[in-house]
């Protein structure tokens, strides 16, 4: 049975951009949470007691971890005060006692944060945040200082070289080009995922492991796949109309509705999951 997205973007310009982004971030967590949590559990989260989530945003991912792991303590930090405020509201409504939200910038941590040596972390999460940071090597060194001996670090990042469809469809290439255009516009490093292992090794990390996160329709479900693709394209259009036009959005909508459900269609998204040890 086909899912119709024909009216999905009829009121796209009447919805606040912040709301579109909030809805998308929630969708992003929902479609990937099980796999990302499983990856971290396989690579050290199961024995962790205190975990830092860098670039926690609205706290949705970190909050879900805290709910499911009451025996662990979590701290979520973000350089945007409004994101921390939103995360704190979520904490209040869900009654979470094992998570704390702090307004901190990983590229310029406060002396108060750095002084708490006895409270260093068993693990640090970077979920789609390093792609926005220019001082990646410096952040990797700072993170080592925050980790206990043998502490783990987990990265969920982007590698556009892994983004492709089989068979190759011009509509999917349109989607990929739109992604690349938006990343260039905002200085996002769409090829960081493939370079991170070498950077981690140079920074002194060990036991480095990389796994592709395909986010295929087989993994996350057809409707989630369709909704993710079209929601992201809609955000691209709102943030940078030159990356994808309204007409191209309509092309992608038809593609997602008519071609994506076909059994022969297969595509992988440009995401990677990486773990490393201090």
Structure description:
The strands form 2 sheets. A 7-stranded mixed sheet has the order 3-2-1-4-5-9-7, sandwiched between helices. It has a two-stranded antiparallel ribbon with strand order 6-8. Helix content is 46%, strand content 20%. The model has no long low-confidence stretch (mean pLDDT 92). It has a domain at 12-160 and 188-217 and 269-277: Rossmann fold (3-Layer(aba) Sandwich), CATH 3.40.50.150. It is α/β, with parallel strands linked by helices and 278 residues long.
Summary tags:
10 helices; 278 residues; seven-stranded mixed beta sheet; 20% strand; Rossmann fold; globular; two-stranded antiparallel sheet; alpha/beta
What is the CATH first-level class name of the domain at 12-160 and 188-217 and 269-277? Alpha Beta
- Low-confidence stretches are none
The separation of the N and C termini measures 48 Å
Tally of DSSP β-strands? 9
Strand order in space, largest sheet: 3-2-1-4-5-9-7
Beta-strand residue fraction? 15-25%
Query: What is the share of helical residues?
Result: 40-55%
String of helices and strands:
HEHEHEHEHEEHHEHHHEE
Biggest sheet descriptor: 7 strands, mixed
**Structure class:** alpha/beta
Tally of helical runs: 10
Shape: globular
Q: In a nutshell, what does this entry contain?
A:
46% of the residues lie in helices and 20% in strands. With 278 residues, it is an alpha/beta fold.
């Amino acid at each position: 049975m086909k899912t119709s997205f024909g009216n999905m973007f009829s009121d796209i310009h009447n919805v606040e951009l912040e709301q579109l982004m909030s809805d998308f971030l929630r969708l992003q967590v929902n479609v990937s949470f099980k796999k990302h949590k499983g990856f971290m559990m396989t690579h050290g989260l199961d024995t962790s007691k205190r975990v830092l989530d860098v670039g926690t945003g609205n706290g949705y991912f970190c909050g879900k971890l805290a709910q499911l792991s009451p025996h662990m303590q979590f701290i979520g930090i973000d350089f945007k005060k409004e994101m921390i405020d939103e995360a704190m509201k979520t904490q209040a409504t869900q009654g979470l006692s094992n998570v704390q939200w702090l307004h901190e910038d990983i590229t310029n941590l406060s002396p108060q944060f750095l002084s708490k040596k006895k409270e260093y972390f068993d693990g640090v999460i970077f979920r789609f945040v390093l792609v926005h940071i220019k001082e990646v090597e410096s952040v990797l060194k700072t993170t080592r200082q925050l980790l206990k001996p043998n502490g783990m670090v987990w990265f969920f990042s982007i590698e556009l070289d892994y983004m492709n469809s089989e068979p190759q469809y011009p509509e999917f290439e349109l989607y990929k080009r739109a992604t690349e255009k938006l990343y260039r516009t905002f200085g996002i490093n769409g090829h960081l995922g493939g370079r991170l292992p070498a950077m981690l090794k140079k920074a002194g990390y060990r036991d480095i492991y990389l796994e592709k996160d395909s986010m295929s329709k087989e993994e996350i479900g057809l409707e989630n796949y369709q909704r993710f693709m079209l929601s992201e394209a809609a955000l691209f259009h709102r943030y940078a109309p030159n990356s994808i036009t309204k007409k191209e959005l309509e092309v992608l909508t038809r593609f997602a509705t008519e071609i994506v459900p076909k059994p022969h269609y297969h595509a992988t998204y440009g995401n990677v999951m990486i773990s490393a040890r201090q």
